[in-house]
Each structure stands twice: as structure tokens, then as C-alpha cells.
Amino acid sequence: SVNPMAYEAQFFGFTPQTCMLRIYIAFQDYLFEMMQLVESVILKKLDGFPDCKISPSEIRKSTEKFLLFMKEHFDKLFSKMEEVLLQLVLNIPKNVLLPEDKVHEQYPYSKEQFQELQEEIQQLQQQYKAEAAAGQALRAELEEQKAVQTELEKILKWFEGLENICREHGTSNFKESFAFLTQNAKKLQDVLKDVEEKSR
Amino acid sequence: GRSQLFATVVDTFLEKLVAAGSYQRFASCYRRFYKLQPQVTKSIYEQFISQLQSSVREEIEEVKAEGNLEKLFSSLDKIVEEAKNREEPAWRPSGVPEEDTGSAMLPYLLKHRAFLLRILGEKQQENSRAAEAVLAGRGRIRELQQLIEDHRQAWQ
Amino acid sequence: LDELVVETATKRKQWPKKILRHTIQTYKAEQE
pLDDT of B68-97, one tens digit each? Predict the structure, then answer.
């Protein structure tokens, strides 16, 4: 099972394994290049000794022998180095949290709690809208009440005005004076009738 | 620190590699040439080793520069230092982006909720005052209507 | 695999901040 070391990649911007692979390939290339160089230098030196019996294929064999030996040690040493680097240098200890993830430490919310919180926010928004609408309706009624109150007060004023007129003309209690008036009117009618009869 | 450790580990690797590929080993592989030209063999070997070491070191410097490793190592050392008294394993991405992002948004959700609670409370207070005023207004209007009715009755 | 890991890790590093910016804008707009 491959450990993708994703958290390390989040920090470094590359996976540690890739980094090690890149170093391995580069080192290996150098080793091969150096060996090639060594061999070409030796062959060139041999040109100076035409009578010596060392053939290029023999040199090639020696190169391969030395390279094989170096490669074995190289691989062993490199995997040791890789192990140490992946464990101690290019790794993020289990108890360490990267700065960009700090929020997860401060708010250890579960998925359910998070959903509840979202629902609660939805609900609060609905409630607020309802309250705002209710507020509008209340203000509208208050406006309406003002107008109605003004009208009713006008009517009352009118009545009061009426009663003031009566008072101004000495009839403080309208009812009595109305009764008095009616009596008077009736009396007058009787007197009138009386007069008419006499005159006939 | 990590940077120091990195350099040490690479140096150790190189030392051991050179120790493995000793001059004896080299001379024994190229035995006949060595017999013919021991001095030349020696200098070729020495050049081989120093060239190999300098190439490896250059490569390491290149990788460090490319990956900006010095800076990353020192900042990681700091981060690890800060977490040194934490025992339990720290949070790691769950693999479900929605969930992980959710937690990142959490502080703002909480702030938003607090805001909504506050303005809802204010609005409710405002509305209850308005409701009282409306009820008072209705009462006043009933009074006025009653007064008018009384007057009207009286006139009637 | 390596590219996927790096791409995923990069998103994990960068996107919460981006999303957060939009979320905050949304909330601010809503509050206004």
C-alpha cells in the first residue's frame, strides 16, 4: 500500500517520494557518467602504449565490474538515506497540524453539527424575514390608525362644536332644552290654535 | 534542524559510497592497467571521486534551491516545535472536501449566526413595541368610536 | 498518482481560503 504522503505534499508542494526519486536518478546518472569518463580516460591513456596487451573489451569488463560493485553499494546506501530523510526530514509528524489547517483544531465540529448549524441559520433567516414582514404590517396599521384616529377626532370635534353652539345660546343640556323647546313649540301651537278659534 | 539533518545524511551517504568504492577496489578491478600505470590509475581514481562528490553536492544544492527546501525546512522545524507539547495525532484531511471546507467556514458561520440572532432579537423587540402601539391604537380607536356612538345616540 | 497527490494537496491548501472569501462575501452581502 502506497503512502501518498499527501499532507507532506500539501506543505512542500511536492511528494517526498518524488523528491527522493529525482535525487536518486540524478545521482545514478552521475555515477554512470563518471564511470564512462573513467573508462574513456583509461582507453585514451592506453593509446600511448600500443604494445601493451590490454584490450578495450577487458577495460570494459573492469568498468562493469567496478560499476556493478558501486551500484550495489549505491542502492543500499541510497535506500538507507531515503528511509532516514522520509522519516525525519521530509515528513510531518502525526501530532503536527499545518498553519492553514489550524481552524480544524479550534472548531472540531462534526458533519452533523455543521449541518445543524446551517439549518439553524436558514431558520433564523426565515424567522427574521417573518419578523421584518410583521414589522412592516404593524407599521402600516399604525399609519392607518393615525389616519382613522384623525378622522374620528374630527367627528368628535364636530360634535363638541355642536354642543358648544348650544352652550353659547344658553342651552347647556341639549336634551332638556330640546324637551323645553318641544314643549314651547307645542304650547305655541295650542296658543295659535286658540287664537285662530277666537278670531273665527 | 531538518536542514542540518538533510546535509548530514547526504554527507554520510557520500562518505560511505566513497568508502565502498575504495582505491583498492578500483585498482583491483582495473588490475592490469593499474600494474601498467599505478600513478595514472591513482589520479584517475581521485578525479573520479572528487568529480562524483562535487556533482552530487551540486545536485543537492539544485534540488534545495528548486524546492525552496531551506526555507521550508526551517518553517517546518518551527511548526513542529510549536506542536511539541501536543501528544495526540493532529487533524488530517478527511478526504471529503465538503466536510473539511465546512470546518474552515465554521467560524464565519458562527459569526453569521450570532449576527442573525442579534438582529432577530432587535427586530422582535422593535415589533413588540410596535405591537403594543398597535393594540393601544386599536383601544384608542374603539374609545373614540364609543364616544362618537354615545354622542350619536344622545343626538338620536 | 504523484501528480494527483500534488494537485489534491494543493487544492486542500488553497481552496478553503478561496471558498472562505466567497462565503464571507455572501454573508456580508446578506447582512447588508
Answer: 999 999 999 999 999 999 899 999 999 888
pLDDT reported for residue A1: 64
Burial string for B78-92 (b: 16+ CB within 10 Å, else e) reads ebbeebeeeeeebeb
pLDDT in tens, C1-32: 999 999 999 999 999 889 889 989 998 998 88
Q: How far is CA B113 from CA A26, A121, A199, B38, in A?
A: 56, 6, 100, 85
Minimal-distance CA residue of chain C relative to B102: C16
In angstroms, the CA B52 to CA A35 distance is: 10
Average the pLDDT over each of A31-40, A61-70, A173-182, C19-28 and give the range with the smallest value. Answer: A173-182
Q: Which residue of B has its CA nearest to C20?
A: B105
Closest CA to B77 of A139, A121, C3, A90: A90
The pLDDT value given to residue B74? 96
Do A88 and B17 contact (CB within 8 A), yes or no?
A: no
Q: Residue B106: which of C19, A24, A131 has the closest Cα?
A: C19
Angle at C23 between CA C18 and CA C28, to 5 degrees: 130
C-beta atoms of A13 and C10 within 8 A: yes
A154 residue type, one letter? K
Scored b (16 or more CB within 10 A) or e, A51-69 reads eeebeeeebeebbeebbeb
State whether residue A145 sits within 8 Å of chain B by CB. Answer: yes
Put simply, the answer to whether C17 touches A7 (Cβ < 8 Å) is no
Of A7, A13, A18, the CB nearest to C2: A18
Burial class (CB in 10 A: 0-12, 13-18, 19+), B150: exposed
User: Please, which residues have CB within 8 angstroms of residue B42's CB and are 6 or more apart in sequence?
Assistant: B23
- List the chains bordering chain B where 3 or more Cβ pairs fall under 8 Å: A, C
SS3 A125: helix
pLDDT band at A50 (very low <50, low <70, confident <90, very high): confident
Q: How many angstroms separate the CA atoms of B131 and B126, rounded? A: 9
**Both ends of chain A: CA-CA distance in Å?**
141
**Which amino acid makes up residue A139?**
R
Q: ipTM > 0.85?
A: no
**How many CB contacts within 8 angstroms connect chain A with chain C?**
34
